[in-house]
Amino acid sequence: xxxxxxxxxxxxxxxxxxxxxxxxxxxxxxxxxxxxxxxxxxxxxxxxxxxxxxxxxxxxxxxxxxxxxxxxxxxxxxxxxxxxxxxxxxxxxxxxxxxxxxxxxxxxxxxxxxxxxxxxxxxxxxxxxxxxxxxxxxxxxxxxxxxxxxxxxxxxxxxxxxxxxxxxxxxxxxxxxxxxxxxxxxxxxxxxxxxxxxxxxxxxxxxxxxxxxxxxxxxxxxxxxxxxxxxxxxxxxxxxxxxxxxxxxxxxxxxxxx
Length: 258
Prior knowledge:
Elements: H1 10-40, H2 46-64, E1 67-73, E2 84-87, H3 94-100, E3 106-111, H4 118-126, E4 130-132, H5 137-153, E5 157-160, H6 178-186, E6 190-196, H7 198-201, E7 212-218, H8 232-247
């Protein structure tokens, strides 16, 4: 048991179990409503699902956990879109916070294993989410490239985690190329979102959390129109440096406690 896991008491486990039960109960209740809406609107209901229904359920789940969620938009009154949104991935709590964002016309790039849950499989596929095999980099990139035309045609945004997995070395892990190559293919800007507090509130492998505050900082878009593939590594390093700065660490001090 890790040092972070020892901090959880009976109350935290109870609230976390209740929140997970609530979350999946809401999925069961909303699934037929969503399916009917998608059928009647020929799929156009998808945006309403990710912009309104998903944030409603996610925010209610966070409240049950005793978590206050705040969005700090550093871009102005409106979130820029279409764009490739990138987040730092450090906790299972990230799933709820990205759903709670309610980003406009966004689609999520998630790990393939989410489809083992039949509800996630049905809702994810019907609402146009993208599932990739993160452990197979080339196949992941191919999957992203296959979805580029659809995303561009429908003027959708995409949200991805460049670190790939929450299990990575350091507070900010190495960044993979996928999100940045996709931004170049789509000719979209990169919009960095820094999730603050998620690691401290949920440190285990499951969605067991402590009460507290977490914030999503939406930062100004980064223009990718002048990017070239031969300098992509440099651009990725520059974006990652921003996350290191927001986390209050540098490459030398970028390590996990304990």
